Amino acid sequence: MSFEISVTLPRGAGIRVDFAAPAGLTALFGPSGAGKTSLLDAVAGLLRPREGRIVAGGEVLFDSAAGIDLPPERRACGYVFQDNRLFPHRRVRDNLLYGWRLAPTARRWMTLDEAVAFLGIGHLLGRMPATLSGGGARRGGRAGARLGGRRSWLRAEPLSSLDAPGRGETMAVIGRIRDELRLPILYVSHDRAEVERLAGRIVAMGQERLAP
Amino acid sequence: MTLSPEEWGIVALSLKVSLVAILAALPIAFALAWVLARRRFPGKILLDALVHLPLVVPPVVTGWLLLIVFGTNGVVGRWLAETLGLTFMFRWTGAALAAAVMALPLMVRAMRLSLEAVDRRLEGAARTLGAGPWRTFATITLPLALPGVLAGMVLGFARSVGEFGATITFVSNIPGETRTLPLAIYSALQMPGAEAEVTRLALISVALSIVALVASEALARRSGYGRMGGQGAHVL
Description:
Mean pLDDT of chain A: 82
Structural class of chain A: alpha/beta
Largest interface: A-B, 30 and 22 residues
Low-confidence stretches of chain A: 208-212
Low-confidence stretches of chain B: 225-236
Distance between the termini of chain A: 33 Å
Radius of gyration of chain A: 17 Å
Oligomer: heterodimer
Order of helices and strands of chain B: HHHHHHHHHH
Mean pLDDT of chain B: 89
Structural class of chain B: mainly alpha
Strand content of chain B: under 5%
Order of helices and strands of chain A: EEEHEEEHEHHHEHEHEH
Radius of gyration of chain B: 20 Å
Shape of chain B: globular
Number of strands of chain B: 0
Number of helices of chain A: 8
CATH architecture of chain B: Orthogonal Bundle
Helix content of chain A: 25-40%
């Protein structure tokens, strides 16, 4: 199993999420406000669930009953945020290398050159984030998350929000993470067709609110 | 405009007192700013009010409170004298203490605002990229808050140079020891025929204050990093 998740998220009265997903790609599908991003935050270690258990790739990340709560830096989740979180005081190059420098050598799987070529952002490396266009900043943010040595993969930026080339390269990277590295991937989607084409497992969130 | 050796001495003493006051207050001010910006705890409003007290209480009262707490028979004063050999009464160290207490609210305020302006989500991103809490603080939080921290120090320095009421109450007005610029101006005003000295010292005070304000504003502007937040720390 790539993910075994059974938690109550601290949102409103508490959002209950309970699923186990096989290796590969797992899509979180549901309306906004259903807790998809909160769930990714909980897996990454940025949001503490009220109670429950999170296992990713066989490793227990959180278990309220056993008192386990790994800090985010030890969970090593590659997290592509919905908003590109580039550090405003560092040039794009230093943003990209932030996670790479902190990753154990054995777990670095992509070099800066490779990621830069993939995303076509070579001309942006010397720039400060504030000077980038929206698209440039988003590609930079994705590259930054990608360069660290990751053990699982979280993606809050929906594929449907990308332009066609962005989608193509993202799909290629997702395929590579899934097939070469065999890392579990959890991602957010609003697009039923996309989810059915890509995901090995679909987790519907917030459906009970939609049902009459 | 030329200054006499005594007047240079006054300027030098003022700068020494203010510099020591700011450096001593820095760690305390930053810790208070951090706690007020980031923590939630019972009694936070009380701590906030206490930090701001020197800003609103008459300086004479602050000076009198310092006498009670840090004086020869004060609880803290006696303890410091016995353990560290540090005394304040009628000494420049006392002037520095008074200046530090009076500058503290301004320093805490600027630092707190700049810490609150730091996007917590960036800290979260750094954590997922493998940085522990301390590395995140050193590489993300502190650099982003730094212009505000520096602006707070400059502002505190300017406030220290101008400190009068608490100082004269706490450590009196002793030439060469506690007679800083404002106290020297006050003394000169009491003497007939010292108008020229008053003018010279007053001009130096004004010049120092303007330099500090401009420096603080320049630092606050730098904290913008282009489109990112960075409001808050402005005084002008």
